[in-house]
Amino acid sequence: MTELLPDPVPARAMGSARVRADGRAKVTGLAAYAVEHAAQDPLCLWLVQSTVAKGRVTGLDHDAALAHPGVVAVLDHTNAPRLVTDDPEATDPELVVLQDPAVAYRGQIVAAVLAETVEAAREGAALVRVHYGTEPHRAEMRDDSPAYAPESVNPDQPTDTDDGDVEAGLAEADVVVDETYRTAYEHNNPMEPHAVTATWTEDEDGPRLTLVDSTQGVHPVAATLAPMLGLPKERLRVLAPYVGGGFGSKGLPHAPEMAAALAARTVPGRAVRLAVTRQQMFALTGYRTATVSRFRLGARADGTLLAIEHQVREQTSALKEYAEQTATPTRMLYAAPHRRTRHRLVELDVAVPSWMRAPGEMPGVYAHEVAMDELATACGIDPVELRVRNEPDVDPETGKPFSGRRLVECLERGAELFGWADRPSEPRATVDGEWWVGTGVASATYPTMTMAGSQARVRALGGGRYAVAIGSVDIGTGARTVLAQIAADALGVAVDDVDLQIADTDLPMATVAGGSSGTSSWGSAIVAAAQQFRHDHGDGPDAGVHTTASAAESPGMEQYATHAFGAVFAEARVHRYTGEVRVPRLLGVYSVGRVLNPVTARSQLLGGLTMGLSAALFEESHRDPRFGHVVTQDLATYHVAAHADVRGIEAVWLDEEDLHVNPMGSRGIGEIGIVGSPAAVANATYHATGVRVRSIPITPDRFVE
């Protein structure tokens, strides 16, 4: 394997609007998801969850469950296969399943039932009797809850930063905004719930586990689970041929995958299928923590920022620490000589929070952009103009030049397309029948990342055709389509001459589909492999010759600050008597480097905008602190924006490329769409009503007098 720094690739297929390669299979029902994968003599698994928030299992009664027709076995901490947990560096506490009687949160897996049918497994699980000894627990994040500073925040960024003297800057300011902004608990709800089919087999080299998993990264799953299962990584094969969405929740393996692996070990040769229910997803598959952001902005009378302070309180789990990087975008979004950020965690006896689309950036930019709207009001300055006046020349956090920062152009283009010039300067100035009407704006940003380690293989098939293999996963983003376009240009052939293989650990290593880094990371590896292949074998190679390579990190990633940018404009209509909020217009304008496929890119940006709208108006998980569980456990009580909620919505982008990042000239687009849109909606509701709501979701009761 070689490591190359690929040269820029001429765009022929890249940039063309190709339909999704997997589209027909999905809409015709031919795509086989994790528990639809063909399996030998499969069994079904159903999980039994704890009903206490903290304590110990003191007894389990399996008799009624085992007597139920179709039930094969019941696993618990007394009889489940043992995990290897003696290496703390290789042990994820969330994955230590069915190993001891301790209960760390309500909803934790305490038993699992194997049966011939899913109905028998479910009924058998209901017949398992679990007895507990309880302990006092904490399950509510309050303003007075004790908090601590983690060593770092996701993924490995500084917890706190100080630049200049914030107190001096605030003292010098003509205008000060000092407010607190809150975001709710949110749960990922992809259409396909978390699911896995697990099969243990034996050969001359020993045991082997195969997982067909609904995951965002097959290689990360293998790397995480194999050591705990006592397997060499090459003896754990993970496939993810089709994934019905993830939004971050499938970026890491969770407890259900380990439970399925342990259950399958007790029935070697038989497949075990587990589909997590919608209700179980609210306890077992991660979520976005609630956040509390105190912002202090100090500015001159003309709106020029002198000081920015962002202090964050959010929640983690006593079982496993997760620190959302909520204040990190504040460090680079606007210029100010005095800046300070802080993160503090409240530890609770609850399930482990995790990634959810734009973790940190979504709640952090929401708070920052509502605070900026308040500053614009206090200074009597147009909100677009305020942002333009505080545009930095270089990255305020690192001092590096930006590889490309066209936020001002996004704001100006969006203002033109949205008709911003006709906007009344005062709030509560426009009424249409029984509806107050207003508009709002917010900036958006997301870091542009390329994860090291991905490899790709190019093999000649003969007749001018090539097989390109990489263990990446398409979670519904269109990666399968775009990677073939990248490979075609790198090899100098048509897209139809590329046979792309993905989503299998038998293929070369690929990083997770996360952090909007997938296309950049995998595409760079494909380009490196293609260029090395052409160097080694020329343009008319013999069938069967192949080359594997990975891409070195672009020097531009060290020399420049690399971010995507955008501006979101929203129109809100608030009913004068009921407080109902509708958003008839939502527009995002983005600077994301070269758009490799306008069809899939537009889909991603519209999806992000919709998810941001959903966060702004609807999504909120409610935890009962008395018992420690989330009570909104379905899509009736936890509402996700549906078709009727999403009206006029559009995404456009600037024509550009960013070759400092990768040879394709692209930046990530999967997450920036959700950043900025909640704040734009919130600011529009203020402009409509004159009522400033500083927490999301924005519910009708906030506007009823």
In terms of per-residue confidence, which ranges show pLDDT below 50 for 5 or more consecutive residues? none
Please count the helical segments: 15
Name the structural class.
alpha+beta
Q: How many β-strands, per DSSP?
A: 30
Strand order of the largest sheet: 4-6-2-15-12-13-14
Shape: globular
- CATH architecture designation of the domain at 2-31 and 451-552: 2-Layer Sandwich
Describe how the helices and strands are arranged.
Elements: E1 2-4, H1 23-27, E2 43-49, E3 55-61, H2 63-67, E4 71-76, E5 102-103, E6 109-115, H3 118-127, E7 129-134, E8 152-153, E9 157-158, E10 161-163, H4 166-172, E11 175-183, E12 195-203, E13 206-213, H5 218-229, E14 236-239, H6 255-265, E15 272-275, H7 281-284, E16 291-299, E17 305-317, E18 338-348, H8 361-379, H9 383-389, H10 407-418, E19 431-432, E20 435-447, E21 455-462, E22 465-469, H11 479-491, E23 498-501, H12 518-537, E24 546-551, H13 556-559, E25 563-575, E26 581-591, H14 598-617, E27 623-624, E28 629-630, E29 648-653, H15 677-689, E30 695-696
Parallel strand pairs: 1-24, 2-15, 11-30, 13-14, 17-18, 22-23, 26-29
Antiparallel strand pairs: 2-6, 3-5, 3-7, 4-6, 8-9, 10-18, 11-16, 12-13, 12-15, 16-17, 19-20, 20-25, 21-22, 21-24, 25-26, 27-28
Helix pairs in contact: 8-15, 11-12, 14-15
